[in-house]
Design a protein that fits this description.
single chain, 158 residues, alpha+beta, Nuclear Transport Factor 2, Chain: A, 4-stranded antiparallel β-sheet
Length: 158
């Protein structure tokens, strides 16, 4: 129990440091920070933290709106008491105007901690590729849209 509290405290501290340091980082690093914050929020099963990282204008082809996407995530949280992610961002492209971007993120999802990518197959983890569109909202990058599809194990060689 004490270990879990320490991990949560460290995660919150990391998110705070990430948010505070965004002004001095490149747009690519700011986007990577947003992706890392999303990873931490999902692992902590914090719908409120995820909501802060998703634009109110969010749209996707499956759930449609931000509210519907968050509701789907809530159901996922209810069905999975333990969520562990292993992510790899393979590409970040910033639009010429600097106000929008696309990132390709590979995510391995498992019920136990994943230390190395080669363990994903043995753990029967779910593997996905997310094409994530982001926009700037003041000093923050927020997810405006996401498309996901199954990924292959070779996408996780890192």
């Amino acid at each position: 129990m004490k270990k879990l509290s320490i991990i949560k405290l460290l995660s919150v501290s990391l998110l705070t440091l990430t948010a505070c340091s965004q002004d001095t980082n490149s747009p690519e690093q700011q986007i990577q920070n947003t992706i890392s914050a999303m990873e931490a929020a999902v692992e902590q099963r914090s719908l409120d933290s995820v909501k802060e990282l998703v634009s109110s204008e969010y749209k996707d082809e499956w759930s449609g709106s931000r509210r519907a996407a968050l509701r789907s995530l809530m159901f996922y949280f209810q069905g999975h008491q333990s969520i562990h992610l292993l992510t790899r961002t393979s590409d970040i492209q910033i639009a010429d105007d600097g106000k929008s971007a696309r990132a390709i993120v590979y995510v391995g999802m498992a019920g136990k901690p994943v230390e190395k990518s080669e363990y994903l197959i043995d753990m029967n983890a779910d593997l996905y590729r997310f094409d994530v569109d982001l926009i700037t909202d003041g000093d923050e990058w927020r997810v405006i849209s996401a498309h996901w599809q199954p990924a292959r194990p070779e996408n996780f060689d890192f």
